[in-house]
Structure formats: structure tokens, C-alpha cells
Amino acid sequence: MESTLFSLAHGFAIAFQPDNLWYAFLGCLVGTLVGVLPGIGPLSGISILLPVTFGLDATQAVIMLAGIYYGSQYGGSTTSILMRIPGEASSVMTCIDGNAMAKKGRAGAALCIAAVGSWVAGTFGVIALTVVAPPLATIALKFGPPEYTALLILGLIFLAYMSSSSLVRTLLMACIGLMLGMIGIDNMTGHFRYSFNLTELGDGIGIVPVAVGLFGLGEILATPSHKVIGEVIAPKFRELWPSRKEWNQSFWPIGRGTLLGFIIGIIPGSAHIISSFLSYALERRVSKNPEEFGHGAVAGVAGPESANNSASTGAFVPMLALGIPTGPIPAVLMGALMVHGVSPGPQLVTDHPDVFWGFVASMYVGNLMLLALNLPLVGLFVTVLRIPYAYLYPLIIMFCIIGVYEVNHSIVDVWIMLIMGVLGYALRKFSFDPAPLVLGLVIAPIFEQSLRQSLIMSNGNYLIFFSRPISAGLLIVCIVLLAMSAMTFILKRKDWRDKLAEAEAGEAQQ
User: Fold this and answer.
1) DSSP conformation class of 215
2) Full DSSP string of 203-230
3) Is the CB of residue 23 less than 8 Å from the CB of residue 63?
4) What do you get for the CA distance between the two ends of the chain, in Å?
5) Which DSSP string corresponds to 397-437?
6) DSSP state of 242
7) Residue 172 CB: number of other CB atoms within 10 A?
8) What are the helix and strand counts (H, E) for the chain?
9) The pTM is what?
10) Residue 320: which pLDDT band, with cuts at 50, 70 and 90?
């Protein structure tokens, strides 16, 4: 514990450097705006701004991008409360009671409770990250290639199992990402593969053009303009402070949401989205007045907003300690670190202590910045919401193209981004989630290397994965998850056939 406190003190020395403070502030401000603007979201925002970080060092880059991530969780509540439009997917539940409070004249109180709940949850999440990540990384150092391969497979299958779309569709997207990750020079043999004789693809398809295309361009193409305009309720600054009764009603929901969110954040999947839904359901169940939910219940704002912020911090634990991204946003952040020559995983704490501890300390500072930003600048964010769609989104597309080109000065990257933008639009139209594709692309090099190293160790015998206790245990969990998913699918088909048979029997009787 003493060494952890010493390392954290070193991290604060890095975080308080003027340059790092500026990038933390910039990330928080941009993240809040990303959360406020409907139709963009943190994944699109991080993807669009990823090219901007290539002139920075690894510490500054991850501080800024992480600020955008947890800042967007704060900002998403603003449009949910003031316009009943979720600026970010995890703010869907805040719309219900937050906007109801606004219509009762308590918009300021709802915004204040959302901001304070987010700050408490974010701070708790960072403290837990400080305590949990280093020992977890120490345990992970004992993993060999077979254990790492099994862990990556489990991460993919768990993500697919927790996904809102079907397991088959999610795994299909992940497999496409893994295949795209094989383009370029083979690290083990030096063979040039699947490159279509384009020398620019020697290093493989970059995470930047794929992420910007799928989530920046694809999201903009798929967002109809009528969804991003609406009536804005503008609260006055003096109305921001909640009453004593509202503070009392929000105290326990903030605590429960914080704890629930962090635990869910560690699990693979869209943690910040799942946690807000679960927190809302929990608060409704434990409430003495469940009938108030949907009509301006304070707990319906405090719980979900705390949960999504705590979950977004919890998602950094497996990413930093194990090198396993638990969702698309940690995957893009992990890709950004890899581009800067820093590999997330068990060696990160020991090999790059400045990056790890500087990042952790910057999150303490960032959460305070967000609290200071969100309440006084509500009026500014309301003004931003009134920018016409026709002006805002073409500018974002222009920044996407310029940003991607500036990374490698490669027109091939721009074409990849444009192709991925059209693909992202098409996937959304056919109800496919593009997020697992990015996840597959990011982990493809690590997965391929650990798989091939495992097979070299065993002379090509796949039983090596079942002969080692840890890898065997992880693969058994994978098999159980797949079996549970198959059973759910079979039961749904049976229910559907039974209902069809009942309907046909009813028609025959008539």
C-alpha cells in the first residue's frame, strides 16, 4: 500500500504539469460537448479526435482521450434533462425522470444532482482503479501465451453474450475485425499478406481510419436531422441548487449506482450503458414510492448517472492491468496507446509507470474539473444545442477527413475511412453493431501472436489450452456461455412456434 501511495504521488507530480493539466481540461471540455451534442457520443468523439493526439506523448494522449470518455458521461445528462434527447446512449434512462423534473421547474436541481452523482462515482472509480489495477497486473504476469489466448477468447465471447444484438451477429463482427487485423506484414515470418500490393498496408489497417469511419462518419450518416433538434429548457443559474429533500432522496441512489457501476464496468460489454439500465431498475425496485418513477423521481436521475460514470472508470481496470479492452471505447484508447509505442497489459505498471500513474492521477483532477465545468457552463451548452444540424455536421466530416490524412499523410487511410463510414452506415441499417469489429481489429495482433506462440510451445497440439488449469478454466467458461446462449435461442424458437400454433388453432376454430 505504501508503494501504491508513493507511485500515486509521482502520478500527481506528472498530472499537475501545466501541459498535462491543459490536456486534461481540454479532454473534459470536449467530452462534455460530445456528450451534449446528440448523435455523436463518446466513441465517435474519441475516434474523430484520435488523430489530434499523434503530436503528443503517450501520457498526454491518454489523459486527453480518457477525459473525452468520462466527460461525455457528464455531458450526456444535459440534453437528456433539458431536451429529452440522450446525448449519449448511457443517458437514455436519465431522459425519463430528468426531463420530467425539468418540466416541473426543477431542471437546475436535476443537472446539479447528475453532476454531483457523476463526480462522486468518478472519484470512487478512480480510487478503486488505484487499488485494484496494480495487484491484478502482478497476477497477470504469471499468464503464459495459452492463458492469454483463452482470456482474449473469453473477453470476445463475454462481450457477445452481453451485447444487445444476437451472439452470432456480434461474433461475426468480431471475426471480421480479426480478419482485417491480419492484413499487412506477418510479425513472425515477415510475409506480406492480404495487402492488394499496396505498400501503405504493410503496417496493417490502422485503428484510426477504421474507428473514425465506423463511428464518426457512420454515426453522422445514420443520424437523421430531425432527431437532433427540439425544444430546449434553459435553467437559471440560481436554480441549480437542489432542496434538502432532493439531496436526501439522491444520497443512497448515488452510493448504490456508484458501487454497481464499477463492478459492471470491469465486465466485458457496453458497461456504461448496461449499468445505467440496471441502476434504474434497482432504484425502482427498492423505492418506497415506485409510482413516482417516470414522473420526476430524483433517484431516477441520481442512480443511473452515478452508475454510468463509475462503470466508465471500471472499464479501465482490465484494459490497463490485463491489456483486455472490455468494449469499443477502451479498445480505441488501447489502440491509441499502442500507436504511441505503449502496450497496455501486465507490464504497463512496471515498464511505463509515468503513463499509468500520470493517467490515474489525471482522472482525480479531471473529475474535479468536470464538476466545475458542468454547472456554471450550462448556459453555454444550451447555446451549442441550438447550432443548426446543417452547419455542425459537415464541419465534423471535414475534421474527420483532415484528421485521418494528417496521421500518416496517406490518401489510402482516407479511402479506408470513407469505406468504413459507408460500411458503418450499412451495418446500422441492418441492425449490426459495428463496435465488436473495432474490438477484433485492436486485439487481432495480440491474439494471433499468443495463439501461435502457444502452438509453437506444444508443437501444434491444441490440447495445450486444456492441459493448463487457468486456460482450461477460462475456456470452460466460454463453452458454458455459448451453451447458455444456444439454450436461450432454442427456447425462444420454441415459444415462437407454440404461439404460432395457438394462433393457427384459434383461426381454425373461428
Assistant:
1) I
2) T-S-HHHHHIIIIIIHHHHHS-GGGG--
3) yes
4) 75
5) HHHHHHHHHHHHT-HHHHHHHHHHHHHHHHHHHTT--SHHH
6) P
7) 17
8) 23, 2
9) 0.69
10) confident
- Cell of residue 279, nine digits: 441502476
The grid cell for 276 is 445505467
Cα→Cα distances 145→133, 135, 159, 337, Å: 21, 20, 21, 21
- The one-letter amino acid at 211: A
**Angstrom distance (rounded) from CA 32 to CA 103:** 23
Contact 269, 439 (CB under 8 A): no
Angle in degrees, CA 53, 374, 120, rounded to 5:
95
Q: Residue for cell digits 448511457?
A: 90
pLDDT at 228 over 60: no
Of the candidates 82, 44, 104, 117, the residue with the CA atom closest to the CA atom of residue 276: 117
Q: What are the boundaries of each domain within the chain?
A: 2-467
Kindly state the helix (H) or strand (E) to which residue 185 belongs, with its residue range.
Answer: strand 184-185
3-class secondary structure for 95-122? Answer: HHHHHHHHHCCCHHHHHHHHHHHHHHHH
Residues 358, 20 contacting (CB under 8 angstroms): yes
Give the CB-side neighbour count of residue 240, counting CA atoms within 13 A.
Answer: 18
Distance CA 328, CA 344 (A): 15
81 within 8 A of 99, measured Cβ to Cβ: yes
User: Exposure pattern of 23-48 as b/e (b: 16+ CB <10 Å)?
Assistant: bbbbbbbbbbbbbbbbbbbbbbbbbb
For 442-461, how does the pLDDT look when each residue is reduced to its tens digit (9 = 90+)? 778 888 888 898 999 888 88
Residue position matching grid coordinates 456461455: 481
The one-letter amino acid at 441: L
Instruction: Calculate the alpha carbon distances from 486 to 156, 168, 431, 479 in Å.
Output: 16, 10, 20, 10
CA 155/CA 73 separation, integer angstroms: 24
Instruction: Report how far residue 190's alpha carbon sits from residue 192's, in angstroms, rounded to the nearest whole number.
Output: 6
